[in-house]
Amino acid sequence: MKSMLTALAVISVTAIPATAQDFGPPELIAAAKKEGRLVYYTANFAEVEQEVIKAFNKRFPEIKVEMVRAPGGQLITRVKTEAAAGKLAADVVDHSDRALMRDLVGLFQDYAPPNGKDYLPDSLISPKLWPRVTLVWSIAYNSALVKNPPKNWMDLTKPEYGNRQIGQVIAPSGGTTWTRVMFERQVLGEEYWKKQAVTNPVLYPSGAPMSDALVRGEIAIGPLLYNIVYPKKRDGAPLEIFFAPEGAPVNPYASGVPSTAKNPNAAKLFLNWCLSAEGQTFMIKELGNLTSLRQPPIYPEGFDPKVVKVWLPNFDQYVELHASWVEDWNKIYGYRQ
Amino acid sequence: MTADAAAFAAPAAKVERGARLGIVAGRLWSAALFALLGFLVLYPVAMLVLGALTNTNPVVDGFGVFDLSLANFVRVLGNPNVHLALANSLIACTGGTALAVLIGLTFSWIVVRTNTPWRGFVAAVSLIPLFVPPLVAGVAWSILGSPKSGLINTMLGWAGISWRIDLYSMAGLIVVFGMYYAPYVYMFTASALRNMDPSLEEAAEIAGVSPLRTLFTVTFPLIAPAIVSGMLLSFIVMLGIYGIPAVLGAPADIPVLTTYIFKLTNWSPPLYSTAAAVAIILMVVTGALVVLQQHVLAGRSFTTVSGKAFRPRVIELGSWRWLTFGLALVYLFTVVVLPTLALIVAAFRRFLFIPNAASLFDMRHYSLVHFDSIFDNPLTMRSIWNTMEVGLATAILGGIIAFAIGYTVHRSHAPARRAIDLVATLPVAIPGLVIGVAYLWAWVGLPGGLYGTIWILVLAFVARFMPDTMKSLSTSFLQIHRELEEAAWVCGKGRIATIRTIVLPLARPGTVAAMTLLFILAIRELGSSLFLYTSDTMVMAVLLLDYYEGGNTGKAAAFSLVQTVLLAAVIGIAGWLSRGRNAQASVGRAG
């Protein structure tokens, strides 16, 4: 039944072309076009977001999106400081760490996309903040170097992948990695970190440089966000990627429109498009995201929902466990904090 | 009072009134400079100290809710990871500085004092590493010297040599630091050697002292301030560099203070207060070095530019000149050709997986895809334009302010000039990443719309690089003998006229060099840009980090090449434009 619904959803997305009106009422679209621009703060990778902006501009060429990209911690500091000084320049704030965003919820105005009811309630931390993107963890390896590839998460503890062949993104790097770390301990077992750390993995501050190291052959294997490695594989890099059967940790972002937005209509239209079936389909198909829509319009290449179980952390635990578990992880992996 | 006495007393009173006016003007001038430095340096540093003493964001939480405590310092000082990072920083920077002095001094001597062929070319080569942002240098040398995938190792394997290079090590950090920061020593020492009166060396020659002994007992001691200044500056700059240790040190788990601070600001949630406390430790280390430098130089005269005419003495090397030329070629190959080739390979190759030499030369792997991609991004052109604007404005404004402060400190008797020197030197000790957030805290709330314009970047760069500009200028000031100014005063010129007609023309090459240095530093600066840029004021360094952090070495390399070519073009044009003026200045000095 579920696959039938998915198939129907795919057909509905691909068969019936969306019109501008699907992204908001005519008055919102007219007002957005009149504003003509928006300032977009994001913690996602700049080049990925350039693709999103380009796709949005195919639909709405009249609206210029000016992006400020910064790593998670720096972006939060900037938003807090600008807001306190009354100079928050952002019309949209888009962040991967939902716990940090929850503390700032007072800065945002009421906003919901036209298809808001289609989203999984668990993916929202506030009715004002929406999962514009939903990133999913995969396991990738350099196919030119690994002759006997791992098949699941537990394989990453095998001694044959020792000697710094595996890469790992550090636990304190941000919300998406924290989700993976929670998954490892809660789903793969209390001893998983210890077993995995014995392989002496190379630690990276974030997934992007690690994905580059994987392509170059600096490391051979590693858990990585699918949206970092998929475009490289698509373009011909010697990579193979799979979703492990024990589960695929996902991290929905939290995105909203600040109360002080100077271009609120353009901001809402941009988010409406990103959250629409068209926007989500684009991000799944071209960028390798998942979606927090109840009925995904499409799945990324290699993702079989019948085999792979999506794992979404309990948000209360996501907030409560963070400090102590990250400290444990740092100790086990010998990461200096 | 007799008529004679009255006639004598009138000018005396006039002189006394003039002296009083001079004192008042001096005080006002010092107060104005202090106010300026207060805004540019003390206020942001105070924010930093406040940040280190609390766990709050001064702008967000207001000034009234501080819970001041030394907890951050106690925690940081007791943290063995900080001790390790500090020790690694000191080892890497000491080794790097020693190598930089060896390279920089050798090349300045080759260029200025020998008859090595194509010296102009060698001089240009010696400065090229200055154009290269540290992140780019780190990436280039990681492509070359990675123990697993480095091109050098690939080629060694192809040649059947079993020895392997590993730049992911402390030795690797030292070598790359030394190569890239040698130009700082070169700039200072070449200028000093060029401006040095050769009569003392000639005296040594007449006394039968060998050329080598003359070099070490006469020449180098005479240019000691330049060597010490270049050494200190290169050490301090290395201490604040993030890109090279981030790329080469991180895979080998060699943390240094900057990478540790970057981690603190990048964790979720970010720990700025701890980062500020670590930064203050860095400030203390650097402050100690500055005091040491002043102690070493105290009470010694290093005047080498006087009213006498001379030309730098050139040593005829005979056939040895080909050895010195060979050294220059080896340096050129190592520091310029190899990393540039690595960047070219990375920029034109679709993917940087190079399992063997055959794959390296397989042209099917090469394309313009990364260049297409970066120029498809509208931010690329905007960042180039913004960077040029910011660089130029910083060079002009920073050059003027540094000249004013440098003159006040070195050539005047204005009150509190030592304190002015100290305050202007303070930013040298603060890593860009941390001072960036201090500038944001300090200036975001100012009325007048400074935030969001390129001017907030310009002011941050002027403040941040004040010590570098000052050090660069102070060598010029120290070398100009007071007799030249005194001659002008005897001829009835006032202070302003003396500066305009004597000091400025003589210090012009040094000022142009300082402004060029400032332009380069501003264009490369990443740390303090990160918090101050907005969508309209994106600069190249930030975009480069975006490309690198985006996990695409190819795009980062392509953009690095664009940046390097642009910088070289701008510097080349600046050098060509100032050539005539410098020549005039040299003639003036010789006359």
CATH class of chain B: Mainly Alpha
Number of strands of chain A: 11
Low-confidence runs of chain B: 580-591
Instruction: Give me the number of helical elements of chain B.
Output: 26
- Give the ordered list of helices and strands of chain A: HHEHEHEHEEHHEHEHEEEHHEHH
Q: So, the CATH homologous superfamily of the largest domain in chain A?
A: Periplasmic binding protein-like II
Output the radius of gyration of chain A. 20 Å
CATH homolog superfamily of chain B: MetI-like
The most extensive interface, with participating residues per chain, is:
A-B, 61 and 55 residues
Would you identify the regions of chain A where 5 or more consecutive residues have pLDDT less than 50?
A: 1-15
The rough form of chain A would be described as globular
Percent helix of chain B: over 70%
CATH fold-level label of the largest domain in chain A = D-Maltodextrin-Binding Protein, domain 2
Tally of DSSP helical segments of chain A: 13
Structural class call of chain A reads alpha/beta
Helix/strand/pairing category of chain B:
mainly alpha
User: What integer is the average pLDDT of chain A?
Assistant: 89
CATH fold-level name of chain B: MetI-like fold
- Say what oligomer this is: heterodimer
